[in-house]
TrEMBL record:
<keyword id="KW-0812">Transmembrane</keyword>
<keyword id="KW-0325">Glycoprotein</keyword>
<keyword id="KW-0472">Membrane</keyword>
<comment type="similarity">
    <text>Belongs to the RLP family.</text>
</comment>
<protein>
    <recommendedName>
        <fullName>Leucine-rich repeat-containing N-terminal plant-type domain-containing protein</fullName>
    </recommendedName>
</protein>
<keyword id="KW-1003">Cell membrane</keyword>
<dbReference type="InterPro" id="IPR001611">
    <property type="entry name" value="Leu-rich_rpt"/>
</dbReference>
<keyword id="KW-0433">Leucine-rich repeat</keyword>
<dbReference type="InterPro" id="IPR032675">
    <property type="entry name" value="LRR_dom_sf"/>
</dbReference>
<dbReference type="InterPro" id="IPR013210">
    <property type="entry name" value="LRR_N_plant-typ"/>
</dbReference>
<feature type="domain" description="Leucine-rich repeat-containing N-terminal plant-type">
    <location>
        <begin position="27"/>
        <end position="63"/>
    </location>
</feature>
<dbReference type="Pfam" id="PF13855">
    <property type="entry name" value="LRR_8"/>
</dbReference>
<dbReference type="Pfam" id="PF08263">
    <property type="entry name" value="LRRNT_2"/>
</dbReference>
<keyword id="KW-1133">Transmembrane helix</keyword>
<keyword id="KW-0677">Repeat</keyword>
<dbReference type="GO" id="GO:0005886">
    <property type="term" value="C:plasma membrane"/>
</dbReference>
<dbReference type="InterPro" id="IPR046956">
    <property type="entry name" value="RLP23-like"/>
</dbReference>
Length: 725
């Protein structure tokens, strides 16, 4: 009965008259229950969706006057936005019964790659529509253009090319639109996008990040975007000069994000007339090794200036003299990371007295750190990593930075001298001190910093780690103590740490390998003196990278590796492993589709060519050399491994003929079969290995594999997973 009722228009029968006193309308309650039924695994807990009074259900709001549902909020959690595989069901057509809806939020659900339904454009009163992170697929329905009262539209995606829109003409009917987010939607063919956006006179916020846009007009005959405050067209490949461009005449802007747009040329002087600007993001462009314009100092409302990786160059003192120097001093974030500024730091803070973030890493800055930096009491982030700054940093300097969350002084000429019992007033979430001479003892002043998420103290001449280390940093997500000279054993309590990335390679650890922390994704323990057998269960189901090469590990490779469905990189070379490689043929083991690199060279492994590789179609790098493998090479080798770029089998006991199927490798650049027991003639199919004719280095896939082998790849410090703002 309820299904038939949903097909009847809401305004055609007295049976559908709203209940009195603002209580729930019966046919709308039925529609909501149909929606609940269609979302068989809803992101939002809908346990309250029972009983007669639907206006009190979670996520539902009704009009006090009519009882009609006017708001429906089924937004998932932030975690749901990232759980792309969690299928939630489909949107029931019953939703269209809610004709008085003004607010609809279905974001952070997974609608299983279905298309946006046409009926989504059938809500004449709708002001707010949020379908972001919901895994719709295909074309953006132009029917959305029927929502003439819409003021807020968010369709952004978790990744590019899931949704597309050939053009944006459907926007022409949305004259009330104030907020538009189409980030990660494929707009490659929307060549006239600026003019189609320009017909939205009330638009205040526009987000078109990573949409495949390629063109941007230098001028508009008449700009209607007089209310536009936020413009984000970052991560698009415009490949043109940064000026002239249509947006330089949009003087109402408070935020301008041009990050990674492949703009080039100097920043125009016209920016000085955009006095409303509060945030500028120009990172990742080629600004022609020029200084910022002198009239930057007119931008008295500027709070955030991000020029990282933009090839801005010149003397750091001159650059700071061109920053806004106004009575209010609103500047909070200055990021010049990986630019080309140089010279000694200026002696005066100028307009930077209220900074919360000062990021100057990877520049050619020289001399000591000036005193004014230690007086920035609001500072949350201080990143001077990779500069040529020198001098001594004492506790008298550091103790003034009471709000500090991120400290990056690594790869400099600085020395840190503090008393062993000093307790800092701040609570760091990330510290980067790699390359400083901190040893031989681990810095005891870090013991109180138990809120760490990132600890990077590689190559610091540390030889011992105190017992309290493993407890004090048990909540850290990234731990890098590589390239020190640390002795001792790994604790049995390692598994109770929260680390997702651990780099303990190139030290002098001894003893056996304990279980890994459960959340570990990347583990580097190579180049130590670890012995004994591998753990029967690594205890880390999310493991992606395991690097244990150049130790003294013995015994077999445990079959528990077969259960690691995310595994991409395995390097167990240079050990004393014996036995056969697990075949992983049990039904309970998932296919290892993510596996790219397997390096088992220089062990005592035996058996036939590993059968497990049949379920690893994305293998790029296989090195089984210097072992005792035997038997014929399988005929499936050239079919099941289409992306293989390196195959190294030297110094084994393989026999029989080299299969002609080996000539099917389209990506193979390196083939080493020397010192085996092959017989017969060389197959003529080897002439088909065209990738071997490459004359300039490795292919991308092979280059990435080799780069992993060279050492730990850790995350960039600044702004990564550290929400300090």
């Amino acid at each position: 009965m309820s299904k038939l009722r949903n097909l009847v228009p809401a305004t055609t029968s007295p049976l559908h008259a709203p209940a009195s006193n603002g209580s729930c309308v019966a046919y709308e309650r039925d529609a909501l229950l149909s929606v609940k039924e269609s979302l068989w695994e809803p992101s939002v807990n809908l346990s309250s969706w029972q009983g007669e009074e639907c206006c009190n259900w979670k996520g539902v709001r009704c009009s006090y006057k009519t009882g009609h549902v006017v708001k429906l909020n089924l937004r998932g959690s932030a975690q749901d936005c990232l759980r792309y595989s969690a299928y939630r069901g489909a949107i029931s057509h019953s939703l269209v019964t809610l004709q008085q809806l003004r607010y609809l939020d279905l974001s952070c659900n997974s609608f299983n790659w279905s298309e946006i339904p046409e009926f989504i454009g059938s809500f004449p009163s709708l002001r707010y529509l949020n379908l972001s992170y919901s895994l719709f697929y295909g074309r953006v329905r132009p029917h959305i253009g029927n929502l003439s009262k819409l003021a807020y539209l968010d369709l952004k995606l978790p990744s590019y090319n899931i949704l597309y829109s050939s053009d944006l003409r459907w926007l022409s009917h949305l004259s009330s639109l104030k907020h538009l987010d189409l980030s990660y939607i494929n707009l490659t063919t929307a060549v006239d996008w600026v003019h189609q956006i320009n017909i939205l006179p009330n638009l205040r916020k526009l987000y078109l990040q990573h949409t495949g846009l390629r063109s941007t007009p230098p001028f508009l005959d008449q700009s209607n975007l007089t209310a536009l405050e936020v413009l984000d067209i970052s991560w698009n490949n415009f490949n043109t000069t940064i000026a002239p461009n249509w947006f330089w005449n949009t003087t109402s802007l408070t935020s301008l994000n041009l990050q990674a747009c492949r703009f080039y040329g100097p920043i125009p002087e016209h920016i000085g007339s955009m006095a409303s600007l509060e945030a500028i993001y120009f990172s990742g462009n080629d600004l022609m090794s020029t200084m910022i314009p002198s009239n930057f100092k007119n931008l008295c409302n500027l709070k955030i200036l991000d020029l990282s990786g933009s090839d801005i160059s010149g003397d750091i003192t001159e650059l700071m003299e061109r920053l806004p120097n106004c009575p209010s001093n609103k500047m909070q974030v200055l990021d010049l990371t990986d630019s080309m500024v140089s010279g000694p730091m200026p002696n005066m803070a100028g307009p930077l007295t209220n900074l919360t973030c000062l990021a100057l890493s990877q520049n050619k800055l020289t001399g000591p750190i000036p005193q004014w930096i230690w007086s920035l009491t609001e500072l949350l982030i201080l990143d001077l990593d990779g500069t040529e700054l020198n001098g001594v940093v004492t506790e008298d300097h550091l103790k003034r930075l009471t709000n500090l969350k991120i400290l990056g002084l690594g790869k400099t000429l600085l020395e840190i001298k503090v008393s062993p019992d000093w307790v800092p007033p701040f609570k760091l979430r990330a510290v980067v001190l790699q390359g400083l001479q901190l040893g031989p003892a681990f810095p005891s002043w870090l013991r109180s910093q138990t809120s760490h998420e990132t600890l990077m103290i590689a190559n610091a001449s540390i030889t011992t780690i105190p017992d309290w280390f493993w407890v004090a940093f048990s909540r850290a997500k990234i731990v890098d103590l590589s390239y020190n000279q640390i002795t001792g054993t790994l604790p049995a309590t390692l598994e109770f740490m929260a680390a997702e990335v651990m780099a303990l390679c190139s030290n002098r650890f001894t003893g056996t390998i304990p279980k890994f922390p459960r959340n570990t994704k990347i583990m580097y323990l190579s180049v130590n003196s670890l012995s004994g057998t591998l753990p029967s269960d690594f205890g880390a189901p999310l493991l992606q990278v395991i690097s244990l090469y150049n130790n003294s590990i013995s015994g077999p490779i445990p079959s528990s590796l077969c259960s690691l469905s995310q595994l991409a990189f395995v390097d167990l070379s240079g050990n004393k492993l014996t036995g056969e490689v697990p075949s992983c043929e049990e039904d309970s083991n998932p296919p290892m589709h993510n596996l790219n690199v397997v390096n088992l060279n220089t062990n005592n492994l035996s058996g036939e060519f590993p059968r497990v590789f049949q379920t690893c179609p994305n293998l790029v790098f296989v090195d089984l050399s210097y072992n005792k493998f035997s038997g014929d090479l399988p005929l499936w080798i050239g079919v099941k491994l289409p992306y293989l770029a390196l195959l190294r089998l030297r110094y084994n006991m393989f026999s029989g003929q080299i299969p002609t199927e080996i000539g099917k490798f389209q990506e193979l650049q390196f083939l080493d079969l020397a010192h085996n027991n092959f017989s017969g003639s060389m197959p003529n199919s080897l002439v088909n290995l065209s990738a071997m004719a490459r004359t300039s280095g490795y292919s991308n896939v092979l280059g990435n594999a080799i780069h992993h082998r060279q050492g730990p790849i850790l995350y960039n410090l600044v702004y990564v997973d550290i929400n300090v703002f």
